[in-house]
Write a structure and sequence with these properties.
Blueprint lengths: L28 H4 L3 H24 L2 H26 L5 H7 L4 H32 L2 H5 L5 H30 L9 H29 L3 H14 L11 H7 L3 H14 L7 H33 L6
Helix pairs in contact: 2-7, 3-5, 3-7, 5-7, 5-8, 5-9, 5-11, 7-8, 8-11, 8-12, 11-12
Length: 313
Amino acid sequence: MEKDSRGQGVKDSSPGAGFLESSYCPTGAAAANPGPLRQLRHYATAVWAENIKEWKLELTYPLDFLRSLIDPVVYLLPYVLYGISLVGGRFSPNLQKLVGTTDIVSFITIGYVFIGFMNMALWAMGFSLRKEQMYGTLEAVFAAPVPRWVFTMGMSMHSILHQFLMIAVQLLFILAVFSLKVNPLGLLPALAMIGLMLIALYGIGMIMASTTLLFKQGWLISEALGSLLMVVTPIAYPLAVLPVFMQKVALAVPTTYGIMAARHFLMGEQMGFSVGTAFLRVAVLCVVWVIFGLVVFAAIDRSTRRSGTLSHY
């Protein structure tokens, strides 16, 4: 970092400067109080750089990237075909009694495509630190002059964009083979609810990322939690078919409100509570899960650095 005649930091334009060093890095009084806008810009630069890094790594292997877009379609088909075989066709009178709609194909498809964001939180964010360990770059990433949550947010940005690509492929396939019967006017409010759900899932993703620091093989916990959430979230079946105690658990999970509200806006599913109640509950869960996730991550991060086990593979 060069200094001007007043001792203030100036932009480093040397060829070897990285994305953080090439940003404005003040010293002295300017470093003590960089200003909120400059700090946010600094964080945004780091988030974007992490996102771009992940895309570059992923697109280095085009066949594997293509497989990642096709796999979700393969996973979706058994749900749809199994549902059709059980009810003897696409339309179910029993489903009409439970949720107010008969179209089982649209019901399952909307639930499944949006639940991919849950997998993003549990696997992509949770596995992000493990990948850095495999690359041998975890210590370098943690030495960057930004909070840890900025790094995981950059990873989540890449995962969210990738998830939207997978959703597009799934929807195109279902539209071509089965067709979807949805209300296009409900798309914006559905995306608004999914956006709130993503904020809450970020908190869960932080918890999953912290398990990598503690146990190194964090996928074990991600697998267990993912299986539990897949059961209690009404993806391919109505909430009413779950046992009462599992319904209570489901109402504490943001994915329940995200999936049910998305289907409500797109195909008229009866939720059992108002839209305002759904948004309010998800907003509360956003605050609870994000704060809890950040606190857990900070505590585990501090513990691993004190014990000297951060670099342990």
